Structures are given as C-alpha cells and as structure tokens.
Amino acid sequence: MANFWRLWKILFVFTRYRLDSLVPMDQLPLSLRILLWIAPWRFYPVPRKLNRGARLRLALEALGPIFIKFGQILSTRPDLIPEDIVKELKRLQDDVPPFSSKVAMALIEDQLGQKISALFAEFSPEPLASASIAQVHVARLFGEGSEAGKEVVVKVVRPGIEKTIERDLQLLEFMAALVVRYSAEGRRLKPQEVVEDYRHTIYGELNLQIEASNATQLRRNFAGSELLYFPEVYWEYTRNKVMVSERIYGIPVADVDQLYAQNTNMKVLAERGVEIFFTQVFRDSFFHADMHPGNIFVSREHPESPQYIAIDCGIVGSLTEEDLHYLAMNLLAFFNQDYHQVAQLHVDSGWVPPSTKVHEFAAAIRSVCEPIFEKPLSEISFGQVLIQLFSTARRFNMEVQPQLVLLQKTLLNIEGLGRQLYPELDLWSTAKPYLERWMRERFGPKAAWKEFKRQLPSWVEKAPQIPGLIHGALSRLNHMDENQLTMQQQMRELSIALEQQRQQKRHQTLGTLTLASGLFAWWQAYALAIPELAGLGLVGVGILWLLLKA
C-alpha cells in the first residue's frame, strides 16, 4: 500500500509539471505515442510561467532526495542534456530548500550532548548551503592550541529523511522485481542488485561517521598532493547525524567566470580532474563517487597550477584487484582500437556469457566505435560512447556489473565537469599515458620485485615448516594414488562384470531367436501334414532348449 501511494504521488507530480512534454514523442513506438496522447494528464495545461528545466527541477525537488541525486548527475552532462535544462538542474547541487534552523540546532545539541553556546564560540543559524541529504552551518571553535578560533562547518542530516528514502527504495525494489519478472532484459540488467547496491550507498551517506572516515582516508591518500585537498575532520564533534570539519575557501568549480577572472589554467584544471579520477581508482582503489560540481571547489592559490578541493565524501567506491585489472586492460584496448581484445576481455571477465562468439562481438563493437574515432579526439564524448556500447552489448546478453555502476557514474561526472571547464578536453590522450604507466608499475619487473620483497619475510618465517609441509603433501599424494589404484581395480572388475552380462544377454537373445525359429519351422511342417519333419523339428527344438539351459 505504501508503494502504491508513493507511485500515486510520482504520477501526480509528473502530471502537475507536465513532464510528458519533455518526452521526445517522435522517437517512441506508435503504441506508446498513442497511449501518451490519450492519457488523462493531457487535459492539464502546461505551466507557461515555468520553462521545461524549471518544471523538471521542481518535480525532482518535490519527489525527494533520491530524485534530487538523479538531477545532480544530469546537471553535469551538457553534452547529453539541453543547456536550458542543465542550467536549472545545477541549482539542485547546493540550492535545495533548507529545513528549520531551530530543528537543526536541536539535533546538534542532542547528538553532541551540549548546548550550542558551550560547543562553539560562534554559530550561524542560517545555513551556508543545503543539499538533498543534509545542510551545513558555519561555526567557530573554542578549542585550544592550533584549533583555537578555527572556522568550521557543521553538517546536519535532514530529520526524518530515512523514512522518505526507505519508502523510495522499497518502491524501486518493487519496480525492479517487476522488471525481473516480466521483462526479458531483467536478468541481464540486474535491477535488484543495482537497487541493493544503491541502498547500501545511500544509507552509508546518511551516517556521517562513515562520511568522516571516508574523508579521513581520502585526505591521507592525497596528503601533500598539489592535485587535490580534503578538509580536516574534527572527530570529537562528529556523530551519526552531525559532522564538524574544517571550513574551506575556494571557487565553486561551476563558476567558470570567476575561474577565468583569476587567470586559472583551465586546460591543466580539466586534465588534473581526469588524473585525480584515475589516481583514486587505480592507485588507491578508493574513489570519491559523488563528484558533482556542488561538491568540488578550486583553490584560490596558484591559479597557474590549480588545486581541487573536494567535500561531501559520503559516497565512495572501490574495486577488487581482478576488476581493476580487467578494467585497465579494457580501457587500454579501447584506446588502441583493439576491438577483438575488448571483446575477449569481456568474455574472460564474465561480463558476457562464455558462449559469446568473440569475432561477432568485436565486429559489433567496431561498428559503434569506428565512426566515433573518425572525429577529432576532443569532440568524442565518453558518455555517448558508453551509451552506444551498452546498447550494442545488450544484443550479446551483457549483464550489468553492480560493482562498476558507481565507477561509471563517477567517470561520466568527471568528463562532464571537465568539458564544462575546458571544452577541448581530450579524455583519451589524458588517460591513456596514465593507464599505460599504471600497467607497467603493476605488472612490470619493478612490481614483481616489490611483491617479492613484500612476501619475503612471510616466506622466511614459514621456511622451517616447508619440509614438513612437503612430506605431508607427498603422503597425501601417495594415499591418493593408492585410492586411485583401488578405484581403478574396482572399475576394471565392474567393466568385466558388465561385459559378461552383455555377452550373456546376447547369448540368450540369440538362443531365443533360434528357438523361436525352430518352433516356427515345426509349426509349418505340422501345418503341411509332414509328421516326420514335424517330429524331427520337435526333437531339434528340445535339444536346442537343453543346450540353452546348460
């Protein structure tokens, strides 16, 4: 029933803002066009005072945090979404309506166990920014020593948001189950696994202690780096619903005019964004997975060598060593236009069924990619390539890999952000040298020597046990050999018995046929009134019967 009412609300919002007018009718099948044309909401007028981008933004805001997140992702894709819609959706990044300051202050006091006046030397009741999950307030610490008088931001989770998210997740699970049950594509797309992965992600974002630990790890990974900076977390002021961290000053990455005004090197800035992504994924296997412009700033220092500042680390991703290896190999083969290798890697990794004909899959990938690679690299959108590749792979039953969903989303965000900063961004030539260097470092002689040195102490420690382990292994092998010989002997005896049984059966069958032939001959002689021949035949049958019984 809860799912029903939530679905009813979604339909109501869809109708109220006439989102059907955003659907490209000419690209739909005739049956769907007819259905949309006769739908009841056609009787409601399109709100003329609101453009289509504003209607979509207001609809997503009305539907809650999960839909707002979706809008944030769309806002970073000007190559996929019309400019007027992107402009409105950007407001979802940090301009979501805030909740009551009194409620926020009460929640902070409840979580930290003290009055605001005892916790902070200064506290601003007006929120600095408000997003889909939480909002932040500016404060100043009392502190001692280096912390004295430091400006901080206090992040507070929206009260009661868990119920809204749980309701939406249940609706998504219900819809995913319907897709699996009634759609031929359901199994391949793995909608239930994707929703479950998103459930884990979104609930991790609601726990600010998890976000604080993510931010601390990312800050450690980029300590002293000129590429990326993460604010310091103050753990003594951090709980499940409240987190206090260092306040940063920077230019919002979406404020291109201000970046140009300080003579920021936009080419370096865009390329560093790509380098940061691949560094987090392949060097650390721990990446910030919510890289929309509302969470990214640029330091005001050294505009000729710009440094990123990242906040809001509630969503992070990681990959296994096996996934990293296959991903790197796929990307390199793709950059080198080695489509057969791309197809073979998809089979080897299990992303497509093992029965897939590699040459056919490679030909399909080539048909999609060759026209794209004919363009200048700066004009190629990785987002467009992914969309077309997924459409092609559907014909070969490629299954969705839930562990790669966050990675794909983050890469799309990074490319969209990079193209906003520097439209000539060449993602391919920026990423390829990094991947080649990573592969050499990971699988080259230096990597082998490094792994040998890492494992050597463990091997030395286990060296005294090796003779005993070898003796035990040989004993088990000898015992296995004896068991194998016994089994072989039993198999031979069984084979002999089966052969004897088959020979006996053949003998009985031949005798039965011969006996039947004799009886038939006797009957014919008797029928022809030749008693001598009939009597002789009967004696012959009797002798044959005795021989068969012997």
Query: Count of helical segments?
Result: 22
Tell how many strands the DSSP assignment holds. 11
- Which strand-content bin applies to the residues? 5-15%
- Portion in helices: 55-70%
Rg over CA atoms, rounded to whole Å, is 36 Å
First-residue to last-residue Cα separation: 82 Å
What summary fits the major beta sheet?
Answer: 5 strands, antiparallel
| Overall pLDDT score | 76
Category from helices, strands and their pairing = alpha+beta
- The low-pLDDT segments are 520-534, 543-548
3D shape: globular
**The number of domains:** 4
Tag the structure with descriptive keywords.
EC 2.7.-.-; 4 domains; nucleotide-binding; disordered C terminus; 11 strands; 5-stranded antiparallel beta sheet; 550 residues; transferase; 22 helices; single chain; transmembrane; UbiB_bact
